[in-house]
Known about the structure:
Radius of gyration: 18 Å
Strand content: 15-25%
Distance between the termini: 39 Å
Structural class: alpha/beta
CATH architecture of the largest domain: 3-Layer(aba) Sandwich
Amino acid sequence: xxxxxxxxxxxxxxxxxxxxxxxxxxxxxxxxxxxxxxxxxxxxxxxxxxxxxxxxxxxxxxxxxxxxxxxxxxxxxxxxxxxxxxxxxxxxxxxxxxxxxxxxxxxxxxxxxxxxxxxxxxxxxxxxxxxxxxxxxxxxxxxxxxxxxxxxxxxxxxxxxxxxxxxxxxxxxxxxxxxxxxxxxxxxxxxxxxxxxxxxxxxxxxxxxxxxxxxxxxxxxxxxxxxxxxxxx
Length: 233
């Protein structure tokens, strides 16, 4: 199984999560601060597949750690652990580059299900770095490289998180087709996802910021009111 970095300053919670992940077959690195998590990520003997990050940490907070990890590795899976349920904090975590969030107190079964689903997506994306995958999808001024998981838009490279890449690949494979939110959730987050479906809307907004010349008046990633979203070249 893969390698998971757990960053949680509450010892009891951290030890419980670490033990559960090890029993599930994962290798686990544990940190009690943001600084320690960043150091472990840099010095790990094998690539970290998933980082579980508490939001409220001493020193460097979870959002900052998330942004730094995402800047270093576009494919790493990131889950924010938060004791708050307010919408703004969840959105901030997703805007920082997180793929998902879990609100404390959380069910261990739910956490493991989300980790395992995210791990499978990370592995698929990393496998596509293999030289066998050389395909590109061209959509107007946009080119999606399926090998390097990069997007070129208007002759410039656009950095994508692994979730953004998967969403865009789904749209590029189905141009001019309205994709419902639940379809996107199943395709990207998996059949077992039980979180808030607004995670789709947040990622769509992020993609518009990266692909549209005028994100407030999108020409490509369109909303089909009452139905879902649609890509137009």
